[in-house]
Amino acid sequence: MNTPDPHDFLAVDRDLSEEERAIRDTVRDYSRTELLPHVADWFEEGTITDPRGVAKGFGALGVFGMHLSGYGCAGTNAVSYGLACRELEAVDSGLRSFVSVQGSLAMTAVHRYGSEEQRQEWLPPMAGGDAIGCFGLTEPDSGSDPGSMRTRARRDGSDWVLSGTKMWITNGSVADVAVVWAATEEGIRGFIVPRGTPGFSANVIHKKLSLRASITSELVLDEVRLPDAARLPAAEGLRAPLSCLSEARYGIVWGAAGAARACLEATLDYTGSRVQFGRPISGFQLTQRKLADMLVDVNQSMLTALQIGRLKDAGQAHHSHISFGKMANVRAAQRVAALARGLHGANGVTLEYPVMRHMLNLESVATYEGTEEVHALTLGQVLTGVPAFR
User: Fold this and answer.
1) d(CA 16, CA 19)
2) Per the UniProt record, which residue ranges are transmembrane (predicted)?
3) The whole model's pTM is what?
């Protein structure tokens, strides 16, 4: 009997199809060759220095909106999209966020709720990386409770006029188009706001300690006038943006497993070569116990992601399944990253090694797309039948 592979201890990837393996390998090779050599510098500089070049690369790779069908999108299954997210976040959470916001949020909103004209105009260039999109839902005072948003859209003749502020928007300042959600007299509605629309601006958020290899912005809408053709016609109520968030959260389920795996792999390399007291520190009992704990978390995360992916492909994934995966896998990844940082000693706080970069990124991953507390309450409602959000 063969000894288990430390990098896939439970042989989770054994159950992948040939096509899924090919996608995994393609995204992994691209991420390690084209992105990994730059990500530490991007993190240190607090930005992606060439976001349009990165977008074009992702477009050529085919990962933007890859789970969507038509309009230049690949139409892969959910597991394949998850694998892509895993391999991207194994390099950096900010890069997976780039793809997730573009494909699972902005493109999904247009694909699912837009008119045919809107789909034809925006989805092909977004799929190809020729246009960058962002998703404006979160506000300075409206995070876990998006229904309390203050951004308003009022009718003025045949037009709409939008006013408000959105916060923590990935790619906002480089986006060619923003999908913005606003409260109207008829309820929450979504609007397509092209770059350069009068009254619309985006300001980069600086001094972040997490997701630094990502561009995060504030969106300001000051009496932005849009034609009714800019409204997403099928988006009615808060259910529309929340359904897009569920798609993005699904990517996080896989992405967190990738970050955890990267921390374990880096730690196995480091503890195997770091010699103290005459031998590699991987040979000490306390080190091996920590490595074992990391191994369990990584492989349980992989199993959770794959099972939820299979449920999704079978049309049986409830939004609470995704809450389960996001809550469990991010928490596990945070444990793995913390242990990895400690086992790297002083070297663990440098960008020469990836572990503290992952550890800091996961602080944002734990917060966005629903905090742990929100997902816990989602699971609590399923268990008890009693909503406890208010």
Assistant:
1) 8
2) none
3) 0.96
Q: Under 8 Å CB-to-CB from 229, ≥6 apart: which residues? A: 115, 117, 118
Q: Mind listing the pLDDT tens digit for each residue in 195-240?
A: 999 999 999 999 999 999 999 999 999 999 999 999 999 999 999 9
Q: Phi, psi (5° rounding) for residue 227?
A: -75, 160
Q: How many CA atoms lie within 13 A of 199 on its CB side?
A: 13
Q: Which sequence positions are flagged as catalytic? A: 369
The CA distance from 46 to 166, in Å, is: 21
Angstrom distances, CA of residue 276 to CA of 16, 268, 282, 349: 40, 15, 10, 19
Taking CA atoms, 136 is separated from 108, 181, 217, 248, 301, in Å, by 13, 6, 10, 14, 30
Count other C-beta atoms under 10 Å from residue 156's C-beta: 11
**CB neighbour burial string for 264-301, b if at least 16 within 10 angstroms, e if fewer:** bbbbbebbeeeeeeeeebbeeeebeebbeebbebbbbb
Residue 1, pLDDT > 90, answer no
Q: What CATH code is assigned to 133-230?
A: 2.40.110.10
Domain boundaries, the chain: 12-127, 133-230, 239-384
Q: What confidence category does residue 133 fall into, taking pLDDT thresholds of 50, 70 and 90?
A: very high
Please state, in angstroms and rounded to a whole number, the distance separating the CA atoms of residues 125 and 146.
Answer: 29
Evaluate if residue 142 carries a pLDDT over 90.
no
What pairs with residue 73 in β-bridges?
A: 70
* Helices and strands (DSSP H and E) totals, the chain: 12, 11
Instruction: Assign domain 239-384 one CATH number from 3.40.50.1980, 1.20.140.10, 3.40.50.150, 3.40.50.720.
Output: 1.20.140.10
Q: Which residues lie across from 159 on neighbouring strands?
A: 156, 227
Q: Give, in order, the Cα–Cα distances in Å from 3 to each of 10, 239, 294.
A: 11, 48, 18
Output the CATH code of domain 12-127: 1.10.540.10
